[in-house]
Amino acid sequence: MMKHIPFRSLYRAEHGWLESRFHFSFAEYHNRDNMHYGVLRVMNDDIIQAHTGFGTHPHRDMEIITYIIRGELTHEDSMGNKESLGRGAMQYLSAGTGITHSERNEGDEAVHLIQTWILPSEKDKTPQYGSRVYDAEARHNKWLHLIAPEGTKNVTNIYQDANMYVTELDNGTKLDFSLESDRQVYLKVMEGEVRINDFVCREGDACEIRDENIMFKGISHAHVLMVEMPKV
């Protein structure tokens, strides 16, 4: 079963310095029928204008993953971490018992990013932060494994049975993903166009998929993010 979610159907929040599209109920957008998909609680498609950003604010009991599409994002938190990350980089923050951080665009061009919040398997875990910068070749016409459950080697671990992958597909390139019967995925097309099974998905679109394997075919420089998780 596959549900196609067009970009134009997402809630749009416009604040001048920030333009967001909310995939699920968030901030001023409250929709009891669209609170989450499995353990995926938030997916925001954000564009942050130059020399602006989110000031210091708190989080608790949430696994927060940010993927940078373009521009450069500067993160600073109460654990003493501060760094700037650009295209294709991934940032992970486990808020656990509580943390504060800021996310700012200190550059001269807009930052475009996808931020996801995943519900943790346990509350009150010790906060942690991590990031990875990948060469573009690592996701070129193949899946790059960004996030995985605790105990998975050579991949950033989170406090949940969930995985995150990304790929950039050339025009005409095919890539598949085998989905187990007790699992489901949420897909986000960040750039370009891609055929996903029988649907053509355009930039910004999303899909919910369960009970079928997935075949991708790049149409126009497709850049795709995928979250895989248990059915709940």
Low-confidence stretches: none
- CATH C-level label: Mainly Beta
CATH topology: Jelly Rolls
Shape: globular
What would you call the structural class?
Answer: mainly beta
The H-and-E topology, N to C, reads as EEEEEEEEEEEEEEEEEEEE
Count of separate structural domains:
1
Radius of gyration of CA atoms, rounded to a whole number: 17 Å
What is the H level of CATH, i.e. the homologous superfamily? Jelly Rolls
Tally of helical segments: 0
Helix coverage percent: under 10%
Count of individual beta strands: 20
Mean pLDDT: 97
Q: Specify the CATH architecture.
A: Sandwich
Strand content: over 45%
Q: How is the biggest beta sheet arranged?
A: 9 strands, mixed
Q: What's the end-to-end separation, in Å?
A: 15 Å
What brief labels describe this structure?
single chain, 232 residues, 20 strands, 9-stranded mixed β-sheet, mainly beta, Jelly Rolls, 7-stranded antiparallel β-sheet
Layout of strands and helices, then pairs:
Elements: E1 2-5, E2 11-14, E3 18-22, E4 40-48, E5 52-59, E6 63-70, E7 73-77, E8 82-85, E9 90-94, E10 99-105, E11 111-118, E12 128-132, E13 144-149, E14 156-158, E15 163-169, E16 174-177, E17 183-196, E18 199-201, E19 206-210, E20 214-230
Parallel strand pairs: 13-14
Antiparallel strand pairs: 1-19, 2-3, 3-4, 4-11, 5-10, 6-9, 6-11, 7-8, 7-10, 9-12, 13-15, 15-20, 16-20, 17-18, 17-19, 17-20
